[in-house]
Amino acid sequence: MANSIEFNNVDLGDYGLVVNSASTNRQAQDINFQRLHDKAYAFPSGKQPKIIAMEVSVTGTSRSNLDSNLDNINLTLVTDTSHALKRDALSGRYWNALLQVFEGRYYSAVLWRGILVFMCADPLAYDNTQTSSDHLINADPDTVIETTGGTAYIEPVYTLTAGEGLAAITLKVENTDTAEELQWIGSLANTEELEINVPLWIVYKEGVADMADVSGQFPRLKPAQANNIKVTAFSTTGTLNITYRDTFL
How far apart are the first and last CA of the chain? Predict the structure, then answer.
């Protein structure tokens, strides 16, 4: 896939596409502030979408083959929802992207040149490899260490599996490095699972949403450091799985 891209698991290099140059807007934030007479106060800001633009060439063995390649590229790129965009120039990560522009002109019967622009409403990039870490919960409370990479906050999925019957507990899962703690009140039978899905802001018990007695904050992971995850009221026989992808600005 040298000098090419992959979109929705399709290598566009298979259709003669080559990236000649590329640019990406800097990581930017909307700055919100209130100006007073002699000072200003800043308020929480949000990240702007990321725009990835590329100058590309598409070649074919003949005009009909070139047109066929362009048709297949269009068929791949034109979608209603975002899909994984991978660039070989930045290997190991992907963006969730949606096509914005694909236009250009023929330079010969076997050469087409143009621009390709993607918009990423979520400006973050994600590691191609998903991390899945298993931890024993053998104390109450118990603190386990999860060491991450990346450059941006990570939204993991925590799966707690009961090692015995747990009746009317107030389970707490906290990242003590972010001071974000989620509490869930309920009961679990031996081997039943409770999933804390941070990206979706939802808690599942045995695959069914269980949000009636949930409070607090969904605990994220800090990038590129050891995170201390404290689990309280889960007895001493359970397990914790933490699944995530390192995330990049």
Answer: 24
Domains of the chain: 5-123 (2.40.30.200), 131-248 (2.60.120.860)
pLDDT digits (tens, 9 = 90+) for 228-247: 999 999 999 999 999 999 99
Q: Is 68 left (phi over 0), alpha (psi -120 to 50) or beta?
A: alpha
CA distances from 94 to 2, 118, 249 (A): 16, 12, 12
User: Tens digit of pLDDT for each residue in 181-204?
Assistant: 999 999 999 999 999 999 999 999
Other C-beta atoms lying within 10 Å of the C-beta of residue 197: 17
For residue 173, CA distances in Å to 82, 157, 168, 207, 215 come to 32, 12, 16, 19, 11
